[in-house]
Design goal:
By secondary structure, the chain is of the alpha/beta class. The chain has helices at 4-17, 35-55, 67-72, 80-98, 169-172, 208-220, 239-243, 247-250, 254-274; strands at residues 26-27, 102-105, 112-113, 119-122, 125-128, 142-148, 155-161.
Length: 281
């Protein structure tokens, strides 16, 4: 007879699987070269956010390691206020992924420079990237900004995945979707390279779906998730950088949520396959 815990895991899997695959997000024609990969990665990013909405709710379910504290500065893994915050913003990322007012670009040619100020114009809206020449500047992986149309009053959430250099998201990703992460499910392994005990948390940074999820967090509300955090620091990327932030900065850091979502989603797949509970780090 199957245990209750195993049946519970199957239920979580069904919640993850029973997600609509049709999106309202538009993918620009400048993404033609990467359309299939962007589409697949967007699907997974949306799935991860939808699952994380349930996983990081206030319900009393096993949670992976100490990740809620590490990423969002909670007071324990069952901190109801932080769990509610996480669930809310993951749901907002799902809403952004489902919105007809979200548009993904893969090239920055539509952004016209304003001299050498590091600012650019899209449809009359100024976008600051701090780069010269072109908006991605050969340095950025991607960014998100709002494009407000003064004639219609409609604001489009723009996600730009840079492709102008090896630093750009569309040149830097190694896998479209996340697969094969952490065979042993040990969240205490945080280094990126492959080890004898599996892949670390920072492995996710090499997948396009993780990069899109990061930008979806910005698209959910780029005032809540700014490029410069409330404490004055630039947003942090990767586990080691995030754990050093204050609690308020962690909760305004897009990458905190991207890593939190990726780990919980991928670890749950392995728990279902192996019928095991999450480790306590």
């Amino acid at each position: 007879m199957m245990s209750f815990a195993f049946l519970q895991q199957i239920l979580y899997f069904l919640l993850l699987s029973n997600i609509p695959l049709a999106f309202a997000v538009s993918i620009s024609e400048d993404c033609d070269e990467w359309f299939s990969d962007v589409d697949d990665a967007l699907t997974e990013a949306r799935d991860i956010a939808a699952y994380a909405t349930t996983r990081w709710s206030g319900r009393p379910i096993p949670r992976p390691g100490t990740l809620l504290g590490d990423m969002l500065g909670s007071n324990g893994e069952d901190d109801e206020a932080v769990l509610n915050t996480a669930a809310h913003w993951f749901q907002e990322a799902v809403t952004a992924a489902d919105s007809s007012n979200t548009l993904i670009h893969c090239k920055d040619i539509h952004l016209k420079p304003i001299g050498t100020t590091g600012r650019f114009v899209d449809n009359g809206n100024q976008v600051a990237t701090g780069q010269t020449g072109n908006a991605c500047g050969g340095k950025l992986r991607g960014f998100q900004y709002d494009d407000s149309n003064p004639n219609t009053g409609i604001t489009t959430k723009i996600i730009l995945l840079c492709s102008d250099s090896e630093n750009g998201a569309l040149k830097a990703y190694k896998t479209t979707q996340i697969n094969g992460w952490n065979d042993d499910g040990d969240l205490r392994i945080v280094a990126g390279p492959k080890t004898s005990t599996g892949l670390g948390i920072n492995y996710f940074a090499s997948s396009l779906s993780y990069m899109i999820l990061h930008e979806l967090m910005h698209a959910a509300d780029n005032r809540k998730f700014p490029a410069q955090l409330p404490g004055g620091m630039k947003e942090a990327y990767g586990y080691q950088a995030i754990v050093g932030l204050s609690s308020s900065d962690k909760q305004s850091n897009a990458d905190s949520y991207a890593l939190l979502g990726c780990v919980s989603s991928e670890l749950q797949k392995k728990q279902i396959a192996q019928n095991v509970r999450p480790p306590r780090a």
